Each structure stands twice: as C-alpha cells, then as structure tokens.
Amino acid sequence: MQDFLGDMFTRIKNGHRARLGAVILHHSTPQLCLRVLNILTEEGYIRGYHKIVTNKKKGSSFVVLLKYDTNGTPVIQSMFRVSKPTRRVYVSIRSLWKPKNTTGIFIISTVEGLMVDRDARQRNLGGEVLCGIY
C-alpha cells in the first residue's frame, strides 16, 4: 500500500457510513497519519485513538474512535485528499483558500510541521495541503 493517508480517510468515512463506534487502521500506520489523527482529536472531529497489539509478528494497529453528535449524525461530513501521491498541491499563504462555510479545516504540511490552515495563516506559512475536512 502506498497511500496510507487515503486509506485512513476511507476507513473513517466507511465507519461513519456504517455507524460504527471505532475503526481499525492498518498495522504499519506511518507517523504522518498519527500526526493527522492528533490534529483531528485536538479539533474535535474524532474522540481519539489508541494503540492495540494485534499480532507480535506484524506489530500493533491503531483504533480510531469516531465521534457523533446528539442526533447520531457524524461530526465529519466530508473528508477528502487535496494533495495525492501522484499530484502534490503546494500553496503560498496568500493563495490558500478558505474552508467551506468557515466550519471546516485544511491540514497543511509546513516547514514547522503539520498544522491547521488558521495556524498557518497566523504564522504566515505556506506548504503542501494534505486534506480538507468539513
């Protein structure tokens, strides 16, 4: 598998469609996905995640705890990749577009690490736009 971030997004979206409480990620999840999960937890889009040992030979997996509102609708309405392995999208801070209805976020990979678009605007940093979440 080459696109771990895309796989993680697909598992989270499918878990929301099936009304699951949690989804299990691939056993070789890279640090990039864990940093994105940290941002999603801080922004309140998921309840959290934790590590479980599934097989001693393969290593450990990660369980992502999905979040729903009081009506039972998923907190994440839309989750999509902007920059893909075949097509990287880099933006300067001036050309960074606003999230839809100002309720969503973009996760940007900058020289100072991964951050949300509003933090990148405050620090005046551009970079690679990884994904958008509404």
List the helices and strands and how they pair.
Elements (H helix, E strand, L loop, with lengths): L3 H14 L4 E3 L6 H13 L2 E10 L3 E8 L12 E3 L8 E2 L13 E6 L2 E4 H7 L3 E7 L1
Antiparallel strand pairs: 1-3, 2-3, 4-8, 5-8, 6-7, 6-8
Describe this structure in words.
- The chain is α+β, with helices and mostly antiparallel strands and 134 residues long.
- It folds into 2 domains: 75 residues, Ribosomal Protein S8, Chain: A, domain 1 (2-Layer Sandwich), CATH 3.30.1370; 58 residues, 2-Layer Sandwich (Dna Ligase, domain 1), CATH 3.30.1490.
- It is 25% helix and 32% strand.
- A hairpin with a 3-residue loop joins strand 2 and strand 3.
Q: Which class of the largest domain in CATH terms?
A: Alpha Beta
Taking the alpha carbons of the first and last residues, their distance comes to 26 Å
The residue ranges in which pLDDT falls below 50 over 5 or more consecutive positions are: none
Estimated share of beta-strand residues: 25-35%
Mean pLDDT: 90
Order of helices and strands: HEHEEEEEEHE
